[in-house]
From TrEMBL:
GO terms for molecular function: protein-cysteine S-palmitoyltransferase activity. Keywords: Acyltransferase, Membrane, Transferase, Transmembrane, Transmembrane helix. This is Palmitoyltransferase. It is an enzyme of class 2 (transferase). It is found in: Membrane. InterPro entries: Palmitoyltrfase_DHHC, PFA4/ZDH16/20/ERF2-like. The DHHC domain is required for palmitoyltransferase activity. GO terms for cellular component: endoplasmic reticulum; Golgi apparatus; membrane. Residues 7-93 form the Palmitoyltransferase DHHC domain. Belongs to the DHHC palmitoyltransferase family. It comes from Strombidium inclinatum. It catalyses: L-cysteinyl-[protein] + hexadecanoyl-CoA = S-hexadecanoyl-L-cysteinyl-[protein] + CoA.
Length: 108
């Protein structure tokens, strides 16, 4: 089933009914979800799966970095390593929360 086309009130383009105009990118995005400030791009129905995989990969990178940091921490303990580990831990928790939120959105 093809959705009905409408005229965007902002850019006057003919778009699908489930499209929304992004003021950051100044274009209409099909199945608009949000504009990602970190990637400087819109997330919509065409790239939401790739965005989810990106967030998952980011979590794996954070986990790997944290694990490697703990492994190397025993070899050379100093204040700088302690600060780096705390920062890596905070980053991991924030990115894990983002992943959890997107898993929740996919489920419900």
């Amino acid at each position: 089933l093809k959705s009905e086309c409408i005229l965007c009130k902002v850019c006057k383009a003919v778009v699908d009914q489930n499209s929304k105009h992004c003021l950051e990118c100044n274009k209409c995005i099909q199945g608009f979800d949000h504009h990602c400030e970190w990637l400087n791009t819109c997330i919509g129905s065409r790239n939401i799966d790739r965005f989810f995989l990106f967030v998952l990969a980011l979590n794996l990178e954070c986990l790997f970095s944290l694990t490697l940091g703990f492994t190397l921490w025993g070899q050379s303990f100093n204040n700088l390593n302690l600060v780096l580990m705390v920062m890596k831990g905070i980053k991991f928790l924030l990115v894990l929360r983002l992943l959890g939120y997107h898993i929740y959105l996919r489920k419900f």
